[in-house]
Amino acid sequence: MITKSQALACCTQHFPDGPEELAKRLDIPIIRAAFKGSEGWCLRYREQAKITLNSTSPNTRQRFTLAHELAHIVLGTKNDVLPAGAGAFCADTIEEKQANSLAAKFLLPKAELQRFATSLPVDIVDLEKIAKKANVSSLMAARRVAELAHDIGLINGAIVLFQKNQYRWQWSPTLEFPSKDAVLQIWQQAKEASPQLYREKQDDRSVICASYLPGGDFTAMFVQLLPQNVAAKPTTGEQLRDLEAWLFGDDLKFQRSLAGRFGYFSDRKACGMSPEDAAEAFLEHYHKTWPSQWASKIADPRALEWLRLKFRKKG
Predict the structure, then answer these.
(1) 39 CB-near residues (< 8 Å, 6+ apart)
(2) Distance between CA 252 and CA 282 in Å, rounded?
(3) SS3 label, residue 5
(4) 247, 271 in Cβ contact below 8 A?
């Protein structure tokens, strides 16, 4: 059998396909089938195991179920049938909480998260980028940011889940809110500010930065606690919003034209380039093609910064 440290090393080495490679290393077949009422399960007999996943669930959901069942095997704890909708936070027993925690590490190892979470505060744009790189949900990306808060520069972090506009539960390594009413107030403000970040100063001069994360049957809120000087920095999404207000104004024709060229160039020409190099190459590729009414804006340094941020988001 494999140790926990060996399993983590395997998932880190083969990121973002860590759980799949771990299953191969353990010689565990993965069966996908359509069914209702469950996300999947693992059958074990002596040294043999087989994992079944619900093929009707989203791919990110299937990958979490796989990682969760593998975590039970590595930890030597009993596998349970995961009920439909059970996520990375719903756990009532110590064994299930431990399996969820290790599954999250299999999916998004510490070294990889630190490589992607390079600026603070982390907003929904950053979470979506991390999630895309890791082939996980934005909610899983937020969990790992909260788990590794101190490693990436946060004071603390938390996830709060709501169902039908009702507080359901909170997950955090250590962050506590004074009351459910306080959580609901922050959630309402974050919802109104979405997709931008909501900031709220605290008495100790720290700042709560809250992001609204829409979902299917639920919505979530990602909360970061940051020093005041760090929280004040504009996020990638906020920078894009301000630059787009200057760049496009109410000129929808220009916005559509630039979006079309950006999509074509990023998919066909920018592969393997850094955001900085891709932005420069984009301007060089199209420098003689802009109508006169748009040329002056494209030549402005702010257009180059917009392109850098767009390529960073895309990458």
Answers:
(1) 53, 54, 57, 61, 62, 65, 82, 83, 84, 85, 86
(2) 20
(3) helix
(4) no
Q: What is the pLDDT of residue 141?
A: 95
Q: Which residue has the tokens 């920095």?
A: 233
- SS3 state of residue 219: strand
At 43, is the secondary structure helix, strand, or coil? strand
Please give the pLDDT value at position 88: 66
Give the pLDDT of residue 302.
97
DSSP characters over 58-81:
-HHHHHHHHHHHHHHHHHTPPP-P
Contact 22/103 with Cβ under 8 angstroms? Answer: no
Taking the CB of residue 195, how many other CB atoms lie within 10 A of it? Answer: 14
Distance CA 222, CA 185 (A): 14
Question: Residue length, the chain?
Answer: 315
Output the pLDDT for position 178.
Answer: 83
User: What pTM was estimated for this model as a whole?
Assistant: 0.88
Sign for the pseudo-dihedral over CA of 284, 287, 289, 295: positive
Cis check for the bond before 29: say yes or no (omega within 30 of 0).
no
Distance from C-alpha of 150 to C-alpha of 146, rounded to nearest angstrom: 9
d(CA 82, CA 284) in angstroms, rounded, equals 53
Can you list the domains of the chain with their CATH numbers?
A: 4-107 (1.10.10), 117-231 (3.30.450), 236-314 (no CATH)
Ranges of residues in the chain with a pLDDT under 50 are none
